[in-house]
Design a protein that fits this description.
142 residues, globular
Length: 142
């Protein structure tokens, strides 16, 4: 089975986002320009989930033939698209108060999430041969 480089790229993105969000210090909020909240509980939990997704992608990439199964490319596409779509919804429909750098950061995140998903899906669909009904072909020939 050929391993996709996208698993590693996706893993690194998730691990980095997780590392940023787990502690989510006030300096990171100010630096990124994202909306301020009273409690960073949910951001920290999200960071833990993203970090776990990154580890699952690495497990899948480095597993042997009998190794533990991690998160495959289909799961990664689903997670990234859902995150990108939800974030897009927030950016379009809500009145989030943040500086321009926060908007740039969050829209860049949307582009990365949706972009990596689109690339992963495109590459996957191009590699996958079309299945044909071999029984029909055998009947016609025989």
């Amino acid at each position: 089975m050929k391993k996709s480089r996208f698993l590693i790229i996706d893993a690194v993105i998730n691990l980095l986002l997780g590392l940023i969000l787990i502690p989510f210090p006030l300096t990171v909020v100010r630096l990124l320009g994202v909306p301020m909240v009273d409690n960073f509980f949910y951001a920290s939990i999200l960071g833990g989930v993203l970090f776990g997704v990154g580890i699952a992608l690495l497990v899948e990439y480095f597993r042997g033939p009998e190794g533990m199964v991690g998160l495959g490319i289909g799961g990664a596409i689903s997670i990234n698209l859902c995150g990108g779509v939800v974030l897009t919804g927030w950016l379009i429909t809500s009145d989030l108060i943040m500086p321009l750098r926060g908007q740039i950061f969050l829209w860049t995140l949307v582009v990365i999430l949706v972009g990596i998903s689109g690339l992963e899906l495109f590459v996957h669909l191009r590699r996958k041969p079309l299945k044909t009904n071999t029984n029909e072909e055998e009947m016609k020939c025989g």
